[in-house]
Design brief:
Layout: H1 2-16, H2 42-45, E1 60-65, E2 77-87, E3 93-103, E4 115-119, H3 131-135, H4 145-153, E5 157-163, H5 177-191, E6 204-210, H6 212-227, E7 232-239, H7 245-252, H8 258-271, H9 283-294, H10 297-303, H11 319-324, H12 333-338, E8 346-347, E9 355-356, E10 361-366, H13 374-386, E11 391-397, H14 401-407, H15 409-420
Parallel strand pairs: 4-5, 4-6, 6-7, 7-10, 8-9, 10-11
Antiparallel strand pairs: 1-2, 2-3, 3-5
Helix pairs in contact: 5-6, 8-9, 8-10
Length: about 425
């Protein structure tokens, strides 16, 4: 496994050198808050949020036209950066950014043009890492422009969220499930409110993401019925999914990919600042938090290569000891981490499950996966199968973690395209 890990790290390094909470149902967004035109500046899009965020989830707060230079292939399209209202893990309104792209070619399928709600894989936690900035060529540390090319060439619109925490002065709430799922669903709502845009409320919605994005995609799938019941979600594709963060953290700790664990620790604290964290740090830990806040993907991986969580606290706390720490009301870090586990409390429509899913799900991983433990990916798939959800499972891609994202891209596009065309799905549980 270590050899494969070294190969992956080398591949990432080459890529770097290339220039270029309990959910509740909410009402559909109102039409009274849409901006008169898409004339916001970049500073407007990424400005710090107000002390109190007004509006309904999916309300469009600002937009500006964008040229997505990091989507290859010169697909004719119209695109915008967007700033919109969403809901955080504690049920409060927050502000999120993202990108909407609509092919210029007319939609020739049945009904209205469908939209793919897309969450990127891990990009890092610094402000400049935002997917919307990278797609527009303002910084290059990402690897999924080609995936979006396939959606757009198929005629599908793309609503790609940055995720929570890329406004000025913020840090990304990495791996916080409710934040991710809400932001993913709300950018679809916002995409239909762009002045001069052509997306309509009756268009089908597909959900897609890999790695961090795969976790977000399943959270979007689990939350769709209760949080955004007006969206006609017809399928979700999720690959490389870290379905159980405790299982994943155990493997990442001390590994070549410990940077992902660092992102998760800082991201969870950003969403739960009331929990013990900063006061636990030694000098190295304080510096580590700043490293997470200032680096994107490859810089974070380099900064934390082989790092162990025990090295960053004054008392050399292990993961298990951190999980046992209590915050206000007696809740532990372990309980908060367990709340991010995917596939818990799911069921089919009318089952009475907390998260009802009424559409097919495609889950996948690479045969040579070396970052996310096979055990948690396979267990997430089993939970979906056991709940009776139509699940298509593929784990035979001859690739490791990063390259599986690309290897599966056409299968993902075809899976969602079939759902948009109304073709039935047959699971292989």
């Amino acid at each position: 496994m270590r050899v494969r890990s070294l190969i992956t790290t080398a591949a990432l390094g080459v890529a770097l050198t290339v220039p270029a909470a309990a959910p509740q149902a909410v009402a559909a967004p109102r039409d009274t808050t849409a901006p008169a035109g898409c004339d916001a500046t970049d500073a407007d899009i990424y400005a710090p949020p107000p002390a109190t965020v007004q509006g309904s989830p999916g309300d469009l707060l600002a937009c500006r036209p964008a040229k997505l230079t990091n989507i290859p292939g010169d697909v004719p399209m119209r695109a915008w950066k967007v700033r919109y209202v969403s809901t955080d893990v504690k049920g409060a309104r927050n502000v999120v950014t993202g990108t909407v792209a609509i092919p210029a070619a007319p939609w020739t399928g049945d009904g209205s043009r469908p939209t793919v709600a897309f969450n990127p894989g891990t990009l890092g936690s610094a402000e400049r890492c935002a997917f919307s900035k990278q797609l527009a060529g303002e910084y290059v540390d990402m690897y999924e422009g080609g995936n979006l090319n396939l959606f757009l060439r198929a005629g599908h619109a793309v609503a790609a969220t940055d995720g929570v925490g890329y406004l000025s002065g913020q840090v990304h709430t990495y791996m916080v499930g409710a934040n991710a799922g809400h932001a993913l669903l709300d950018i679809v709502r916002a995409s239909r409110r762009i002045p001069g845009g052509t997306l309509t409320a009756d268009g089908d919605v597909g959900i897609s993401g890999y790695s961090e994005g795969g976790a977000a995609a399943l959270w979007g799938a689990q939350l769709a019925a209760s949080y955004a019941p007006e969206l006609n979600v017809v399928g979700a594709a999720a690959g490389g999914v870290p379905g159980d963060l405790k299982v994943t953290a155990k493997q990442l700790n001390g590994s070549l990919f410990a940077g992902f664990l660092a992102d998760a620790l800082v991201g969870l604290h950003a969403a739960h600042p009331e929990m013990p964290f900063t006061e636990l740090m030694n000098e190295r830990g304080t510096r580590a938090v700043q490293d997470v806040r200032s680096h994107c993907l490859f810089g974070t991986l380099a900064a934390f290569l082989g790092a162990r969580v025990e090295d960053f606290s004054a008392d050399r706390l292990t993961l298990e000891q951190i999980y046992a720490l209590r915050g206000p009301g007696g809740v532990t870090w372990g309980e908060i981490v367990d709340r991010q586990r995917l596939g818990a409390g799911i069921g089919v429509p009318s089952s009475g499950a907390r998260y009802e899913i009424g559409f097919p799900v495609f889950q996948y991983r690479g045969w040579f996966e070396e970052i996310i433990p096979h055990e948690t990916e396979d267990a997430t798939r089993r939970r979906y199968c056991d709940a009776g959800i139509t699940t298509i499972w593929k784990h035979t891609y001859p690739a490791e973690h990063l390259t599986t994202d690309w290897a599966a891209a056409r299968d993902v596009t075809n899976f969602l395209g079939d759902r948009f065309e109304g073709r039935p799905a047959e699971g292989n549980c």
